[in-house]
């Protein structure tokens, strides 16, 4: 009986000592649970940062790939006669011009990035003009061009039958070859046709160097006509 009473009295004291010891240990040494929580938190933060950086890197990779693809395109169209001819044939097959002669109005642009911009006389109303864009191998739907009452549509027309898109590649090659001979001159980035008095002319028509300037003209078929120093 006496032993039982002693055990009962000492048991609370024992528990109290255990709690005091635990409290002291937690005071001087952070608990494992706290360290674990902080470690887990740091790990999660690092994981999130890695995920964000991964997303950024993937986005940059896609952007660089798109830029590279565009850069590759910039050296294709004006060197690719097959693609130029494909664009011309597709234009001639537009359903609104079926059985009708197509007339080019004012300008026709060929860009290094694969685009072609052209203005055509409307297939029904001869006073109207529409613009079309060739992009990614397809011609766009027509978009109306706002004209002035002073614009003489008839004087700025040339039949598409007299223009070969592949001649743009000739002009591009000849222009850049001559530009290489002129110190400080830049290569062409686009080729275009301007139409006045029902006659066409290829552009650019000048080569500007750091010390000299030249005038250059081409025949309708894209061959060199004149090359003279200004």
Count of individual beta strands: 11
Mean pLDDT across the residues is: 83
How much helicity do the residues have? 40-55%
For the report, how would you describe the main beta sheet? 8 strands, antiparallel
Task: Throw out a few tags for this protein.
4 helices, 11 strands, three-stranded antiparallel sheet, 24% strand, 230 residues, eight-stranded antiparallel sheet
Task: Please give a structural write-up.
The N and C termini lie far apart (128 Å). The protein has helices at 2-28, 32-73, 81-92, 167-180; strands at 103-111, 116-121, 129-135, 138-139, 143-144, 157-159, 190-196, 199-203, 206-208, 213-218, 224-229. A hairpin with a 7-residue loop joins strand 2 (116-121) and strand 3 (129-135). The protein is built from 4 helices and 11 strands, in the order αααββββββαβββββ. With 230 residues, the protein is α+β, with helices and mostly antiparallel strands. Strands 1, 2, 3, 4, 5, 6, 7 and 8 form an 8-stranded antiparallel sheet that branches. It has a 3-stranded antiparallel sheet with strand order 9-10-11, with helices on one face.
Summarize the structure.
The protein is an alpha+beta fold and 230 residues long.
What order do the helices and strands come in, and which of them pair?
Elements: H1 2-28, H2 32-73, H3 81-92, E1 103-111, E2 116-121, E3 129-135, E4 138-139, E5 143-144, E6 157-159, H4 167-180, E7 190-196, E8 199-203, E9 206-208, E10 213-218, E11 224-229
Antiparallel strand pairs: 1-2, 1-6, 1-7, 2-3, 3-4, 3-5, 7-8, 9-10, 10-11
